[in-house]
Each structure stands twice: as C-alpha cells, then as structure tokens.
Amino acid sequence: MTHQKLLLFVSMLLCCSIAFSQERTITGKVTDEANKGPIEGATVRVKGRNTSVATNTQGLFSIKAPAGNVTLVISFVGYGTKEVSAGASTEELSISLGTDTKQLGEVVVTALGIQRQEKTLVYATQTVKPAELTGVRDPNNVLNSLQGKVANAVITQGSGGPGSGARIVLRGNRSIQQSNNALIVVDGVPINNSTYSMSGNDFGSVQGSDGASSINPDDIESVTVLRGASAAALYGSQAGNGVIVITTKKGTKDKVSVNVNSGAVMENAFALPKFQNSYGQGANGVLDVTKGGSWGAKMTGQSYTNYLGKQASYSAQPNNVKDLFRTGTSLNNSISVSGGSEKATTYVSYTNNYVQGIIPKNDMMRHTVTLRQTNQVGKRFSTDAKITYLVEDIKNRPRTGEENAPVSDIYQIGRNIPTSDAKQYQVFNSFNVAGAAPWPSTNGGIYQNPYWMLYNTSQNQNRNRVIGFVSAKFQITDWLSVTGRANLDRTFDQINTQYQQGTLLWAPNAGGYYKEDRIVTTQKWYDVIFSGTNKISENLKVNYHVGAIYQDNQWSRNENTADGLNVTNKFSLNLATTPAFNSTGNEIQTQAVFGQANIGYKDALFLDASLRNDWDSRLPSPYSYKYYSVGASAVLSDLFVLPSAISFLKLSASYAEVGNGGQFGLLYPTYSYGQGAGNGFLFRDVVLPFPNVKPEIVRNLEIGAEARFMNDRLGFTLTYYKSNSINQLLSLDLPVGTGYASQYINAGNIRNQGVELVLNATPVKGRDVQWDIALNLALNRNKILKLSDLVKTAFLTGDGKPGYLRSIRPIAIEGGSYGDLQSNYWMKDDKGNYLLNDDGTPLTTYQTSGLPKVIGNFNPKETIGLTNSVRYKRFNARVLIDGRIGGTLVSGTEMNLAFSGVTEATSKYREGGWTLSGVNTSGAPVSKAIDAQAFWTKASGQRYGNAEFFAYNATSFRVREVSIGYDLPLHVNFIRTARLSAVARNLFWLYRGKSILDIPGLGKRTMWMDPDMSLGNGNYQGTEYFALPSTRSYGLNLQLTF
Amino acid sequence: MKMINKIFDRRVAGLLLFSLVLLSSCTKHYKDINTDKNKISTIGPAELAFLFSKAQSVATINQGNYQVAQNLFADQYAQYFACVATYFGSDRLNIVQGWVSAAFNPVYTDVVPQLKTLFSNYEPTTAEYAIAQIVWVLAFHKVTDYWGPIPYFKAGLPAPSVPYDPQDKIYDDFFKKLDSAITTLKGMAPGSTAYGSYDLIYGGKVDNWIKFAATLRLRLAMRISKVDPARAKTEGEAAVAAGVMTASPADDALIKRSTAGGDGNGLSIMSDWNEFRMSASMASVLNGYQDPRLPIYFLPTYEGGTDYKGLRNGLTVAQLGDPKNSAAMNSHVGSRWASANVVAKNGTILGVPTSLSTPQNVMCTAEAYFLRAEGALLGWNMGGTAKDMYNAGITNSLAQWGITDATTVNNYINSTNTPVPPGDFLNSPAMTNIPVVFGATPAIQLEQIATQKWLALFPDGEEAWADYRRSHVLKLYPVVKSDNPDLPDPNTQWIRRINFLTTEIQNNGDEVTKATQLLGGPDKITTPLWWDKN
User: Fold this and answer.
1) Beta A820-823 vs A809-813: how paired, if at all?
2) Do A290 and B85 touch (CB under 8 A)?
C-alpha cells in the first residue's frame, strides 16, 4: 500500500465517520386518512435500506436516515403503501394512509401468519381495522363486534352473558355434525376455540365460554378474514369454514410510549317479550291466586287476597319482568408500554375488563397480561416470543333455556304480581335452612321463583389460560429463510355449581347439589417453514413456502358431583351423600407437510398453488390424505392501459380443497361405565363404530374482481364462490331396532354458493371534512344435494338425534337447505282451508302426532352491513347499520308464554267471540267461537308443540353501532394524543319481520326478539327458547397516549 | 435449473428429509391416541355381569325413561294417576311421539346389545344365559304390548332397516324362550346362583328366577286367552306346573334403585314435579273398600287430615284450571315414593329422604294368584279354585305392603263395601258396584278378579293397562275429553295401543308401512292389538 493510497483510505474512513455522524433522525406521525386517528404499528422504512421501524400507539415514529433527500416507504396491513420524500429539513412529517391509497403494495396476513402482498392473492380477503373492534365494544365476546363488518359472516351471540361463546359462520354452513365456526388464528396459529357446553336442544344449558371470548381486543393489531377455502388450505383440516386471522401487537423500534384506554359502557336488556297488562293470575277468566298463568279476571284494581295471604290490589305490574334485570356496567381499562431499538423490541400490556351482566350477580372480571419480545441476533437470526396469561372469573353465569332458569322463570310471572312480592322467595325453617316461599308457578314441577334461582343457585367459572409462542427465523441466504415456531395454548377451566336444597330439577336429593368441573384444554403446535423468493428473470418472480406442522390437541374433563349433601347447603365434595365422578377426554394429533408457491409475471399476473398432506390420528391406518389449491390472478390495470377513471382492476380465480380428519374414537366399539344400583353398569355405546372413516373434503371455487375508480375514491370487490362439502361425516339415525341409535357415514354433498360485494367510497374529501362509506353485501344459497342412499334427513342437534321437538327441530334434508326447521303445524285441507276441531280450535299435527313439516330455515338469505364515517375537523362519527334478509326464527319463549296467557297477543278475545274460519276433518265449516285461552292452549301445544304459530320472518335491520369522537386539543407536553368518544350499540330497530302465520282475527305480529340471540354456538339454531335478551349499550371511551 | 439446485442444496434437503422422517415415525402411536382412555373397548368375563345389570335396569324402565315411557301413558291409561299439569296432553290421549319413544328406543339400544353380548358369551346351557332370556322377554313384552308389531327377530343386527314382526310370532317366541329358560334353570342344583350381586332383583338366586319366569309365562298365557284359547291353556298350565310365585314378599320381584348415577326410582324422581295425582278411579275404589293399602299407595291431600281425593282422567285445560283439580287438592303418591320435598300445608314432611332408592316393583306374587283365579274360571288346571286363588291374591297383595294382621286381612276379604263416588269436580258416580267379597256369578267374579288385580299391580301401569285392554271387564271411567281426532268418542272408545313412532317412520319407513299391514288395521290408537279381542 502506497502512502497516497493509505491517505485516501484514511480520508475515506473519515468521510464515512462523518457520514455516519451526519445520519439524522426523521420523525413523523402516521394517521388514518379517513378519521385522522393515529395508526399504530405501521412500518416505516428508508428506501434502499433494510431497517424499519414501526409507529407507536400515537402513530409516531422516528427513524435514522442519511442526510439529504431520502424516500420513506410507509406501509400497514389494511392500508396502502405510501412513498413520501423527506427533504433535508428536520421538520416533523405528517403522513396519512388510507384505503384509497394506491394499494399495489398492500400487505395482508394470510395463512400461518405469512404476510403477502394483497395483489398477489388469488382469493378475496377482508380486513377489519382494530379501531372498529375496540371503538364500540361488545362486552361479551370480541367476535360479536365483527357483526355487520364482514361480508357473508353470520354471527350468532351466545346467550349466557359475559364470556359466552359466539357462532361465526362464513359463507354458509358446511358441516352437519362438526363445527361450522370459522377457525380463529392468532399470530399464525389456530387457537383452541372449543366451547365446553353447547346447547343441543331447547331444554337449555349453562353456556360455556369459547376460546375467542378471552381474546383481549386491545392487543389486536389487525384482523383479516379469509372467507374461502383457498385462503385456508394451509391450515388444513380445521380451515374448511374459513379463517379469522388475528395478529397481535408487538413492540415498536422507537422510544418508549405508553397507551392508556379507558372505557365505560352501560347495558340494558333490549328486545324483551311483549307482555299483556290487562289480565292477572287465574284460569278461565276467574281470579285464582294459586294459578301461575294469567288467564284470570281483568285487572281493575279490585281488592283481593294475594298468594302470600295478604290483602292487595289486583292491578297490572307492567315492570315486574323488567325489574329483574339490572343495568350492566362494563369497565375496560388497558395500559400498554411499547418500545425498543433496532436490536430488540418489547411490548407489555395489561388489560382489565370488568363486566356486569344484566342478570344480577352475573359478573365477569378478567385480567390479561401480555409480554412480547423480539430480538435481532446478528444479521441473519431473529427471534420473537410472546406470552399471554389471563385469569377470568365469571360469577353466577345464568342458565338459559326452559328448565328452571331465571329468564324463563321471570317471564312466567303473573301479570299482577309486584316485584316486591316476588322477591319474597324463601322462608327459613328452625334450622335456618331456606325453603321455597309460596310461588304460583305455571309449571310447579320445573319453574321456580326466579329470585330463588338468582340468589340460591350459582355457577362460577374460573379460567386460567396461557398462550405463548417462541419463534426463530434464520435467514439462510438472502432469498431463503427458515422459521421454526413452538406454540402452546392451554386453558384451565374450573366450574363450580351449587344448587341449594329445594331447587327444582337441579337438586333432586336432600341437602342440595354441588359439582366441581375441571376442564383442561391443551394445544401444542410446532412448525418449520422454509420461505424463499427468487427472481427467475426480469419479469418472473417466484415466492414459495415449504414446511411441516405438528399439532396435538388434548382435552380432558373431570366432573365431581355431590348430588345430595350430608349437611344441608354446605357445598363441598366432602359432604356428598353419594359422590360421583365422571372423566372424559380425547386427543387428536395431526402432522402435515405442505408446500405453497406463487409465481408472478411482470408483477401483474400471478399463479398460485399449494399442496398439503396430513396424517390424522382420527383416521384408520395409514392416516394419510392430501389436498391442494390452485389459482390465478391478473392485475389488468398494470397489464393494459385502461381509461383513466379506472385506477385499479384485478381479476382472480381459484380452486381449493380442504380436508377434515373426522372424529375422535370412532373406529372401535366402546363400553361405558355408569353409576347405579348394585355395582353400577357397563353398556355398549349407541354409536355404530366406523372403522373405514374417510376425511371430509370441502371443494371451493372462487372467482373475484376488484376495481377502484376515480383516484380510488370508489372501489369494490365482487366475489362469486361455490363450495361443495363432500364425504361429510354424518351421524345418521339408525332404526333403533339395530341396537344402535346412530351411525356415521361418509356421504353427502352440501353446496353453498353466493356472491359478496364489498364497496368503499369517499363521496366527500377535503382537508377538514371527509365522508367514507363502506358497504358489504352478501348472499348465500345452500342446498343439500345429497345425503346418503340410506337416510335422507340428518338432525342438527348436539347428538344427531331428533330430540323432543318442543319448538323446532333443525335438520338437513336431501333436496332442502342446511338449517331447515321442522315443526308441528296447523293442518289444512286440500283446498287450503284451515282444519279446526269441532270446538272451534285449530287442529294441529301436535294433536294428531302427524309428521312435522319444514316451516322455514334459520339462515338469512342475504346479509348487509353499511358503515358511514364522517370526519369534520376534530370530530369524527361512525354509524353502522346492518341487517339480515330472510330466514325464519321461532320463539320458543313466546310459545311457552302464550300458554301461560302473559304475552301481549293473548289479551285479545279473552271474553270469547273469536271465530277462526276453517273446516273440520270431514270438510264441514266450523264456526264455533272460542276464547283466547282455548286458542293459545291449542296453538302452543300446551307449551310443547306448535312452533309454526310462533315463527317469524327474521328479516331485520338495525342501527348496530354509533360512535362520536373528539380529539381533545392538548396543551400539555407529556400527553401526545387524547380522544374522547361516545359509543352506543344496538341503538334501535329500523325494521323487524313479522310472524309467518296470518292468524284469522289476529293478523301478523311483529318479531319482538333479537335474531342474533340463540341458545348457544353449536349447530342447534333457529329457536330462541328463553335465551337471555340481547342488550343495548352506550358508553364513553377515553384514549390517551403518553 | 441452477436455481432449483440452489434451493435444494444439501442443507435444505437434509432438513426437509429430517422433518419427513420425524413425521412418519410418529404415527405409530396414533391408534393409542385415538382410543378413549375413559372407556372399555374389550369385554371379558369380568365385565359381563355389569352388562346384565344394565339390561335389567333398563328393561324395568329406569329413572331417565320412567315419566315419558310409562307415567304419561300407561299409568294414566290404567287410571292409577291422572294428570294435573295443564301442559301435558297424554291424559287426553294426545300421543307425544318424542316422549313415548322412551318406551321403545332404550330397549333396543340399552337392553338388546347387552343381552346379545351375554348370549354370545355364555353357553345356552348356563343359568346366566337362561336368566338373560327371561329379561329379554320381560323387556320385549312391554314394547309389543304398547305397539303391536315391533322389530324383534332382527333386533340388534346392524342394517339400514329392521323389519317389524307380527305379535303372534313374537308371543310364540316369548313362550319358547321362557320354556327353555325354565328347563335350563331347573337343571341347576338347588340353591344355585348366577350373576350374584349384579342381579338387582334376586341377587342371582336361580330358584327365584324359575318362579319369575313361570309367572311371566302365566301372564303372557292369559294375555292370549281370547285370541288363542288352546295355546293359552297349554302355556298357562305349564307355567303353574313349573311353579309360579306363591309367597309374598319372598317371591316378589323388586329391582334395586340407587341415588347414584341417575338410577333412582322413576316414580320418586317425579314426585317433586307435582304433575300427577291419584285418579278418581283409584279414589272411588280404594275409598269405597276402605282399602288398607290406601294410606300406602297415596298421601292425604295437602290440606291435612285423612282425606284422599282423586281427579278424573282427561280433564281439559280449562277444567284443570279449577282449584278442585289442582295438585294441592288431590292425593299425591304414597310416602314410599314421595320425596322429603313433599310437605303438607301444616308443615309435616310427607315423603322420605331416601325415596330415590326405593326399590321398584317389577312383578308380584298376588298377580300370579289372580291369574290363576281367572285361569280357574276359564277351566284351566290352576291347582285350586277361583275363590281360593282370589283370596290368596288379596292376602299376598296386602302382605306385599306389610299388612299381615289376620283380622284386617279377613275383614277386607269378606268386606261387602263397594266403591263410592269419588267426590270429584265432575261429581262422578262410583266407578263400579262390586264388593270385595267373592261374588256368586262368573261375571261378577271376573270383574272382581280384574279389579283386585288392578289394585295389586299398582304402580305397574304398563301391566295394568295391558290387562285392562285384554279383559276389558275393569270398569274404569271414560276419559273426559279426547284431544286425539282418531278417537272422537271416549264414552264408546278407549285407547288400545300407541301409534308407530314418527322417528321410525322417518328412519325405517318402509318397514313401518309393512308393520301397518301386520297390525291389521290403521296405525291409530283405536286399532286393537292381536291379543285384544274386545
């Protein structure tokens, strides 16, 4: 080295160090173009450099950049990618991102957490912004907050109060016996979303929590909905119903920021039954205080001796039902601290949810702690680890359904009984043991004073859940990386149930009833994925993933019961007169290898394919099956010169298959043990073993178009899809004469097809004012093309059995649609005349034990959601209107209450004079006048039978969510942003459907109940039978960033 | 190509191969993983006796099925109880299919599989095999006597459909099975046992099972006495010759029940629900006879005192609305069955805390005597006269319930008391006019035998209803109102069977169509069964 060269080298070093020292920091703020709110977690990168930072909760970032003019690339899931040039000045940048930003580089999180450019996808996805989930919260379950926001999602709320499971079905029901719920994926791995107690009939149950109910909305960074199977092929068996991909927050490479969110929401019972307030306790129009039903005399304030033996005024008590419910208050407080450097980021959050249900004493307290740490170890190796721990306590979860549950009991209250009398629900004996006070029940056998149920029974659930993962990524070459991940999701539920002695139905033995129920669910997931991207030529790029997954799910339940206690109402297993225990459990293991590749030509034509092979423990040896997907997309606006009004146009088509392994323990015969007299019993299980079970397959075809116009002021995606579920694992009733109640077969072909439209528009756009419209519209048509040669009807009950048919029986019948509702009905003759008994009452199939008929289907034909967002200076407002068109819902509640004479409709024709025009079975006209009691007694099938009279067209529209926010002008330094919002949910109905029968002399009645509510999140849908009423909520939310 | 080589360089290929090997070697535990650890997958000698217990428990109508299989139907049609709940229609002959299926399905799914496993594991020459045969007949005669033709010979064989068999062929098989079982058991050494403590009725005593089988055979013989008198006589005489039950309570068949596992006495679990009360028929006869069994069978009304009241069967919903027809104003089932929650108005606890474990009546010695009394009237060789058998029937029935005082028994047997008007809501007349003391004419004697047998069979409504339909000399009140359009006039018509299950029509429809042919009439509740010649 010559001297000169050395000098040059040294000066170069100096230059470098000067250049290094001249490295500057650019700061800025990224906001949502639509609502001006900060965008948290957006990626900011200096073009030409590899390092990037993320914005913090206030949308703020700071990034090191070389001096001079540089270009920053800002991108965020769900928004566009924007390039912004930063001049030499150090002025803070203000960058707004919007969905109307040219979306060429938009990134979505797809299967297994793989991030992909939106335009390379060959199927439709939809992204929900976290603000839409945390803005107007549903206190019970985060999934309920997706209502109206996702095209073709039918969300049914569980009715067990806070923490109860929700049913979310994307693109129609596909599976008869298995779950139709969408798969919930958090950070790339499916979570355990099982529900331990699903109602399979209208007797009712205490509804359990699902896995999704314990997701903390404040930790969510993005939600992507993959509706079709194409998107889901990589998840294998569980993804046939579509996937909801949730990505949670991680730390930002920024100075430490603190985000605080506080919200308070009040809830009230919404959509209670309509009661009559004219007639009180009694029968046949005569006042009788021993009667539970309200078929008595007209209430005119006459003096009488009430059922407690006191003188009282016989007058209407219009609020005696409402009084039982309280105003629920939910408080939500979360704090998160986020920060880090290029080497490591940390995100810590703590959230506290306190939800008071509308049923007294039903409270939920949940603590969620999350810690996430990412590390960059050297240039090629990085790690990401997260642990979430939550403790959830649900107190006094109410029973729902008919049998001695607070809601069914209070609805039955005599119309003349004041709340103060009803609250006298117990009397104490000389040992200070409570006994039931007199209570005129409409069903002395199984309905009790509701206040007894509230205060002398309880079911408490304690949940401990830990979800965590550790992942490591190694960049093998600049085009190939390998990621390994280990994920654990373990939930411990402990449910303790107490029924005091004297509780009808639930405490049959002396002393009372106590049960401890422990459920442990464990999911272990390990995967290794090689990801690569190569440029084959200038115009040809390939992007691929190859990997293997090992998944093991275990579930175990131990029920310890003391049915009868040696010391009355002392609830411990030690005091059991007859201890009983029951253990159940299962384990399912799947292992899979998969490959997926996407080839892009000119960054405008894409070909996509995947192949997966599963080994599933539920199948017979060799346990193996495979399935695949193929698809293509073309960004026409990049390939051709289109009219300038069209800013983006893409067409795509895909075909995919998804397999599903089957059911645990179906291959071999089993015998169960049951306690009982003598030494107890052994008995063969009633399901015929199925040694040749095959995997279920869902075949999915999807064709889509996406277009944006006028500088992206208007855009839509239009998707047509068709899915066929074949080789369905069906539980079919066997004739019991075979000695088996049911058998499983692989058969069937269920077709769902439909169209989805998602439309976005910005009619007004200015510096101070902007108006955005988001509309989603979907229709789904389902047809059971084939079941099996043997049996043409499958039952959608929990056990695949027909059940008692008290209200309706949801079925899948060949040639019909999934969710057809069978019911007893008012018979007609060939000419269409109603058949009447000679006493003038309706002649029904309940009475003749005739075969029930299909009176409707529980699925909506179309669903629609419309969000309008308006921003004016510091104000912003959002209104969501959603609705469902079509479908039938039966009110088992009304059927039951009509028999007791408490519903509004029963107040007409109390004095008689009601002539139904109809004929008797010999065709002769019957003109005998009847009274309301005679009619409703028959119509209700004595409360056990004719759902047709209580079936409604479930079409309804409502104002689902309203939020009005204001960004507070701040004059303090340490608070960076502050937003105060007023929010409301389930504000009012715009339209509700009518009853399907036009009863002569009465006409059609308007649906009173909320079709969102159900008895549970299983496939047993279509009847609302003493579900908890849904709620209207309103509250305030304050968001602060420090 | 270069690129592909690059991708599958040795490092990558090695890792992939490693993962694949790891995967394929892991599936060898799959069979274990897919096996339910909380269940039993193989049945060996140690397990068989448990299956027998299960078959016995269900064949005699266990707790889970009792209300919907028996109480809402046969118990009301035999008019032991009347329904006070307005929401049940079965008392007005409304057949709710979802409920009555509990008298059908459990026999096929819970009795047949266990018994068939026993048949294939025990030699036909063993006592275990023979006793299983007896339980088979016990279970199936209840089913066929509800419906008529039922799946029988092909029961328990997996197939898409199961044919129904005609009732005469089924009865023929009953007799063969009982004959074979008795022969086998008689070949055992005296004092032999089978199933031991797993036999919930007799603790495994073979001698008792011989008497049980013979009595069941006599019951079935009498059932066919009108349709096939010759066969009835043969079977009846063979049964008596084999040795029917003779001494109550030693010979009586009662099955153990337990507070554990939902295996309680079915009548007891219902007592808390207050949905049924004493029928007007029972009130008329028991009150009129001043029957010593009255305070055992029923409780005084809640008003206190010693007033026993009943209500008519088949009252309309409006009529049930009258206070006189309420649960409080009518007699509840006796303290043997009533739980401790049953409390009189004055606070006296009327029931017992252990009611759920009250043994359940299956068959009684008294029945054997009344069958022999009727057989004697028919000219069968029953080993005694009709009158002796009748009086022995009463004596044994009273003994069964602990009434052994000779004066009480004699006074009752010789009583000229007759049934009285029950003093019910409808001011009904006395149910009939016959006294207890054995009458002079065969017509009166037949009615007395039927009436005393009806009283003795309590609370086994299934047998009482079958016997009522068969003889039709018991003068039960007509049902007040029929809601069933197939039976418009309850004054001239009565319910003779249950119509075929809608689930069977849906799952086994072609066979049900054929079964209607076998029934010999429309699938209605008014169509008589094969043995019903009234």
Assistant:
1) antiparallel
2) no
